[in-house]
Amino acid sequence: MLYFKVIILQFLTYVYGNRRNVYAFSCLMLGNCETVIYVRNYLCLLSGKGAGDTMNYIRLQLRKLGEVKFGLVLLVIGGICGFVFAKVFREYYWDSISILDADYINKIKNSAIDEAVLFGYVLWNIFQPFVLFWIVSATVLGLPYIALSILYCGFQGSFFVTVLISKYGLKGILLIFGYTFPQYLLYLPVAFLCLRGGFWLCRSLHYDNLSKKGKSEKIVRTIILVIFLGFALFLGCLLETYVGSALLKKILMLF
After folding, report:
1. Torsion from C-alpha of 62, 67, 73, 76, nearest 10 degrees
2. Averaged pLDDT score across all residues of the chain
3. Which residue from 17, 57, 52 is spatially nearest to 36, judged by alpha carbons?
4. pTM recorded for the entire structure
5. What are the CA-CA distances from residue 156 to residues 83, 89, 121, 144, 153 (Å)?
């Protein structure tokens, strides 16, 4: 139906020339209010005018899509980019990835795990982006930062999977399992709740017309959510340190 509307509009623009006449004609002949609004925004895009109307139209389409579906679209785009990058630029990064080096794998297999040091390392690497995420989400830059975060997650995950499977084939799936289980059973739900919570926090503080009381209530609810998610991340760090590392070491014995 969308393509049919576009064809009609292109034909009318060609025949009538004057875009105002096209808009008037559409109001008379097409009748449907939604179609007329579509015509108006189409003409705004053609003429380069009516930027406010165009932005309202784009905002309406994104609202119809929903933040979850839009996030999934960004995740898929990032995943495709990660896959393409891993395949096209292989010669530039292949020798610099430690997990592809047999000496590095042997070093892990033959070394004892210092769990206290490892726990501190994991804790820092998990909570540093977590804190940064919520700080930025509370600012006006929150929404673009969240979008870039989703793109990066898709890119990073796809790149990681592509590289391991390219190097080790089906055995690479074991490595993926070893690097992600069981801690990602907590990390993934926390990441989803962070992205959605950060989205609504930024929108409530900077884009919706909330009163001071409404914004204060939103901040309080977000703080409670952050504490809960931080506790879940702490448990994930414990799992990664004391369970995931031992499982990964056993899997590496197969390589």
Report:
1. 160
2. 82
3. 57
4. 0.75
5. 9, 14, 20, 18, 5
